[in-house]
Amino acid sequence: MEKQITWSIRFIALFICSLSFLNVHAQKNTNVKGTVYDSNNEPLVGATVSVKGNSSNGTITNIDGQFSLNVQDLKSTLVVSFVGYQTQEVALHGRSEITIRLQEDAQALDEVVVVGYGTQKKKFLIGSVSQVGSKELMMAPQANLSNMMTGKLPGVTSVQRSGLPGNDQTSINIRGLGTFLDSSPLILVDGVERMLNTVNPNDVENISILKDAATASVYGLAAANGVILVTTKKGTEGKVTLSYDGSVTFQKNTAMPEMLNGPDYIYWYNKASELDGNGPYYGADIQTKVANNYDPEGKYGNTNWTKEVFKDYGFTHQHNISASGGNKNIRFFTSIGMLDQSGIIENVNYDRYNVRSNVEGNITKDLTFELNISGFYEEKNWPGISTSAQAEQNPIQQAVYSAPIIPIYYQGEYTAWIGPGSSTTQSPLATLRNSGFQKKQRHEFDGTMKISYAFPWVKGLKASLGLVYDTSYSEDNGFLVGYNVNAYSADSKSYNLMRASSTSEKGNYTKSASSFRRFMVRPSVEYANTFGKHAVSALFLYEQTQLKGSTMTGKMGGYNFNDPVDLSLGTEFISNPTGSHSDKATIGYVGRFNYIFDKRISIEVLFFISSKKEMIFHLLNYDIKNMYCNIEIN
Question: Which residues contact 434 (CB under 8 A, 6 or more apart)?
Answer without folding.
Answer: 414, 481, 483
